[in-house]
Fold:
Amino acid sequence: MITLDVFYQAYQTFRPLPDAQQKEAIEAAPGQPLFIVAGPGTGKTTCLTLRILKLVLVDGLAPRSILATTFTKKAAQELRSRVLGWGFRMLDALRGDPGLAFAEQAFLSGIDVNQVWTGTVDSLCDQVLRDHRAPGAQPPVLIDDYVAKTLLMREGLLVERRDQDPDLSALLLQLHSETGSTWGFHAGRKNELLHNIWDRRFQDQVDWDAFVHGGVGSEAPARATIGQAIGDYEQALAERGMVDFALLENEVLQRLRNGQLDDFAKELRVVLVDEYQDTNLLQEQLYFELVSVSGGALGVVGDDDQSLYRFRGATVALFRDFAQRFCDRFDHTPKPVFLSNNYRSTHAVVDIVNAYAILDEAFQEVRVAQKPGLAAGPNAVQGSPVLGMFRDTIEQLATDLAGLIHSVFRGPGVLLPNGAVLVRDPHGGDVGDCALLCSSPAELATNNRPRLPLLLRQELGGVDPPIPIFNPRGEDLTGIPLIQRFGGLLLECLDPGGVLEVQTKGIPPDALQTFQQWRTAALAFTEDPAVPAGLVPYAVGWADRDPGRQDLVWSKSVAAIDLIYGLTHYFPELHDDAEGQVYLEIFARQLAACAQIGKFKGRVVREPDNQGLNDASVRELLRDFLAPIASGAIQVDEELMEAFPRDRLSILSIHQSKGLEFPLTIVDVGADFKDLRAPKFKRHPVSGGPPHRMEDLLRPHSALGVPSRDQVDRAFDDLYRQFFVAFSRAQDVLLLVGVRPTLPGGRVPNIATGWDRTSTCHWASGKKPFVLI
Amino acid sequence: VPLSIRPKVYSLPSYSLTGDLLGFLRCGLQYRYTRIGKLPASRPVQQWFGEFIHGVLEEAFRRYRESVKLGQAHLPPWPESELTDIQDLIKARLAARGLIPWAPDVEDLGCRRADAAIQELGPHLFPLIHRAEVRLTGARMLPQIQAELQFREADRYEIIGVIDVVTHVQLNDPALQGNPIVQAILHGLPQHPPGQFEVIIDYKGTRRPPIHGSFDSAPGLWSQYAWQLQTYGELRRRQPDALPVVAGVLVYINELLPTRSDIEHQKLEIMEGTTDILPPLGSEARGLLEKWTTKSKPPVLPFDYRLERTLQVHPIDAGSIQTALQEFDAVVGRIESCRGHEIHGTPVLAAWEKNWSDESTCAVCDWRTFCPAFQANYAAKRGETKPRLPGVTPKS
Structure:
């Protein structure tokens, strides 16, 4: 082992030393449970990495005895990269240190930092169940959310037409809408709500029998139906050897409790959990069980102000109350450590983030007690004041914002009211140094009205030179001409003229509408003189099921992937262009999902004497392969995008932006809020949303108990956290944008522009914390 | 004051030995589509076959190990019912992932080869196994690529792999005396190993490749598989429960039960002198092969000869490891360069190497009708310049 001094000397060869707060966490004894509250930009991942490396190099813990989990694949990859990258750099520096004794060098030569367990909780659970299974037992086949929802729809909701059960519909409608509005309340939405209930059953560790047999009036039969639907789904999963994410974690918890994973758990000495503010009761129990079995120490890291995932089952109180909950279980108080030195942002940005966190008095009740405000780092500059761009209309806002972006990144820059010029770095600065963050990056509103992301795309497309947009989550894929033509050809090849399409149950109306648009686009493409030679005969051959050679007959069963790849031949945009490849993957992925759960395994059947079977195989493809894409339920796989492109403006949801930072951060605080009819749940809630109603339905049957705050308060809390995250992404300049009615003190109350939940605007009357441009 | 430049995220690329490095060596463009682009092969025959054999052998070993734990060591040969039970379990596992054999004859052959592997290889192999499915990770310096192609903030890359089986061999163990696998390993080593040592075993769901290219096998396969074993050796030796790793053994499962086409290839290679394992003159195997004609049933060759063709021993030492690591580093450099080209705007077909290893790789490639290399080399001969409509000869 080496001393702490030597450890820091080696680290200092490539990175500045950690600060006193970070050292408090890094240097804690291996057996010390930790409760690390880390504000944005305070070096949380650095701290976690150094804690791991210190445990290995200074305390001599076997790398294999340390397990570190985090929330997303991206964060897990970053943590692993640092553990490996910094670990090897430190080992290189130490091996070259002539001052180290032979015993120390011998110790170092035996260290393999690769052995540290890192990953998302799901990836680790998957690996543990795979490695520690009994003979004859199947390793879990983990299915993604879409496959899970499709299976639930088919095996749970549509069985016995439960989707039309009046009692069940009434209960689900209560969750869907406060007012009882049935807008958007179709089978797909019911299925989504049912899936949420399934997830939360495990996440909140619900006493399922008590829930299913509870309820009064019409809720009692509705709950019984939920029990049946979910029971059927569970059985369908079991028959196929599949597990979804909730079931996977629950299985690991049960096996830990039964002592079936002792071989794995007993090796552990330290368990570190990042992003703990987004944990749920199931995961908390899992971590508690791991340290209970192993006798190791649990350290959690997070920030209650950045908890964004209630809608995925997160319970932020588990983080806020961690010290007490841990103490209750283990009779041992974890050491609290506050990281508050911000190394990301200017003083101006830190100031507004701090002010925003304490703006709403009632919000303070749900924050971690005694949490200090952020402090700008020692090298932080005052920086540009926070800026605000508010215009009369969303169109004008898009025009002016595009002008600003163009001027900053392609022109001479923008003169600010304080006399400074906002401009890109002349040595390699590009529009990738900027991002627009929105509650939702969707380019179209539900009524098909263009939103700021689309207007900005259009405006930036018109500047010289044009600035492209990168908005993988917001763009309407179904409207991209390439996808329309390709999707339309698939439809015409599988089901010429749409004869079967109209007879197929379970295709949502919006998907049918898109099918029609796709078919029209495809037919127009085939009539275009520029249509690739050979495409039309190929497509017609498929439509007619005619191999085009007299000595051959059509195969009795053809994989639909053959059709996809055959058509791809005629689309260079799909096989020779990186962006087209991402679109092609959507079709291939969705077909694989359809094949995984379908009766026909993604194949087109052609039995000369069994037209019913032939049609059924096509209907399955229409419903489970193409309809989900056409209805917009399938999105691009962002893992296929190497990085945020430097030459494009990134538009992200605030959730996507978590963990990221941008020199110029533009936050849409109210481009949609032109009058009081603008959705209240996005700006100043008067009721809770589906996640809050779901909590109230299920938590009476969970050890978590009934939520202590009402739904409206929880909705406010969630909104404050969202904009806290958005504002704290800015490194150099924060620009807030919206329409004029949502300016502080304007007629549209909006928590993102300084309103608290009592309808007082703290930024009104000349107290705006930003400068208008 | 100008805006700062957004810092790149420090993220090390991760490369798997088989999926990435061997995949790229098979063909860079195909690797781009299938691995990076996540586009599945339309006929994953080889994938099903490989995963089925691996799954069956792993499950069979788990059952053997459990019997040892219970104090009732139960080595194969096992009754047919037990073999069927294992095979059904693995088939269901693969089917749940959407992986099914493409045709009944593929499934039948897979089952018969799995039977042969358990019944004939299992009795000798299972007692040697220390661990199965051993995950390995390591990190290497990321090779430098041309400055104009660089696209990421990383100084190292992560290398990952899974060893099928790690065996522990204790030479003075009386139970291992006469074990043909141990004999083959000792025979393949240049010098006498220490008293206790470790050997890495990797199953290949293929036939033994010829020494150098003749018809359907890449000249580079020998080297590539050897590099894979050497790299496994390097990663494995760092793990805490490792003994000195002296060798890697490739197990060519198809040699245990060769098909008619395998025998044809074998005879041709013997005639051309392109195989390293020849049946000795006057041996039973030689006689059977010489007598066999294409129209008759494949002969049942003697077990010792089949085993010899099944096992290929690669000694592992510091020098050979170094060579292998350098080779793989170079492959990583090539992949990173291709990625760099694409990220900097070169179209996919131009950005990626068309370094196909043999015609058989191209013949089943889903991208052949627009791959410039296939079109230039094989399209005229095979007549595949555009996609074919599905069709079969009608049964009379």
Summary: The radius of gyration of chain B is 23 Å.
